[in-house]
Amino acid sequence: MEELSLSMAEVERRSRLSKNTIANAIYGPRHPQAKTIEILAEALEMPVVELTRVRRRRTATDPVSFRAWLGSPSGRIDLWIAALGAAATAVFLYRGLRAPGAEAAVPAIHCLVLLALLTQLPRVADPRAEEDPRLRMAWAAAGDLRRYWGAAWSFWVLLYLGLTASAALDVPSAGGSVAVARWASVGLNLLQNATTVMLLLAYEVVARPTVREDLSRRQLLPVEAWLVFALLVSVVEGTLVLVGVPWAAQQWLGWASGFAQGTALALLVGRLDSKYIGPPAPVVALLYFYAAIQGAWPALQQHPQLMLVLTFLALVLKCLLFLFIAWLFESRTLVFYLARVRALDTDVARERAEFLRRLGR
Predict the structure, then answer these.
(1) Is the overall model pTM greater than 0.85, yes or no?
(2) How confident is the model at residue 302 (pLDDT cuts 50, 70, 90)?
(3) Would you give the DSSP letter of residue 64?
């Protein structure tokens, strides 16, 4: 309408069509509205081709898609960090597979990329600035998600720092009487489990109401309790090393750690695959794939060459996950999702019971 320099009332007067019909003709699908467009073109004394050339202009309040966000200044920075890190990792991966000596460079670059992205983690507005209670709770939940996501990312940085040290020191990855490798596995699994805890807490935030109207929290367990549980698992694993349990028995805990993190990632991605968010289908499919291969974590400690390949693949998919979460924060799509889901939580049980009651008559 801006391009035609006409108001909706003027078009309505000239064409004698309702406002909804005019809006659907201009902004809606072209083929179903062909006859209406012809009427509009005749009333406005314009060629049909000229009228159909007009497209709705994007405004500042329109939602920013994931692809559009990648072209924004902050999105480009994150994308360049991820792309350069992946390219450098691919170079050292190629060298590491052909000749020994570059194994430590792959997890080292992985660690640096994660650290660089961590500095780009978007900030969240103060929830107390909102007057609407529903929005205030949504902003508070978004702040919680940011803390848990940042903590998970920090533990990942430490994990790949440990993998870098293990590769640089040539810590044996299997068997025998080498106790250093077994204790290294205990430490790495502890960091892996701590990351899993933070991902589960992030899932809890998006899965159910965790913030009350007074901004107090109602979680299944406090954060400290979850971290203590992760520490106790590592104590059990350390005890197995001290009593001389065979290496194969200890590896079962590694498999459990990998599958637990894959489950946590799948839970989180599954919740974010919502109509309230509208994520691109290829992005969701790749993130589910990342959750699936996370169970291969013990393979990193047993097969050095496979470790390099999986580390590279994990870096690419982890960067995609970071970009996706950053888009949710910066576009404020996450706040919309949290506000709408909270409203749905209060209504869906009542509506389901009413529907089933009517259906049972």
Answers:
(1) no
(2) low
(3) P
Residues 6+ apart with CB under 8 A from 14: 43, 44
> Which tokens is 214 given?
């007074």
The C-alpha torsion from 193 through 196 and 197 to 200, rounded to 10°, is -160
Distance CA 265, CA 253 (A): 18
Tell me the pLDDT tens digit for each residue of 134-153.
Answer: 888 899 999 999 999 999 99
d(CA 331, CA 277): 10
- The stretch 189-212 carries a mean pLDDT of 90
Separation CA 48–CA 39 (nearest Å)? 9
3-state secondary structure of 197: helix
Across residues 341-359, what is the average pLDDT?
Answer: 81
Q: Which long-range contacts (CB under 8 A, 24 or more apart) does 131-138 make?
A: 133/213, 134/339, 134/342, 134/343, 135/335, 135/339, 136/213, 136/215, 137/209, 137/211, 137/212, 137/213, 137/215, 137/338, 137/339, 137/342, 138/335, 138/336, 138/338, 138/339, 138/342
Residue whose token pair is 């992946």:
86
Write out pLDDT tens, residues 252-286. Answer: 777 888 888 999 999 999 999 988 898 999 999 99
**Among residues 135, 112, 110, 111, which one has the least CA distance to residue 124?**
135
Amino acid at 292: A
Highest average pLDDT, of 136-140, 222-226, 302-306, comes from 136-140
* Whole-Å CA distances, 213 to 131, 132, 181, 220, 335: 11, 10, 50, 18, 16
């083929």: which residue's tokens? 31
What's 138's DSSP letter? H
Distance CA 325, CA 323 (A): 6
Give the three-class secondary structure for 7: coil
The whole-chain average pLDDT of the chain stands at 80
User: Are 322 and 117 a contacting pair, CB within 8 Å?
Assistant: yes
Three-state SS for 13? helix
Q: Which of 22-36, 135-149, 211-225 has the highest mean pLDDT?
A: 135-149
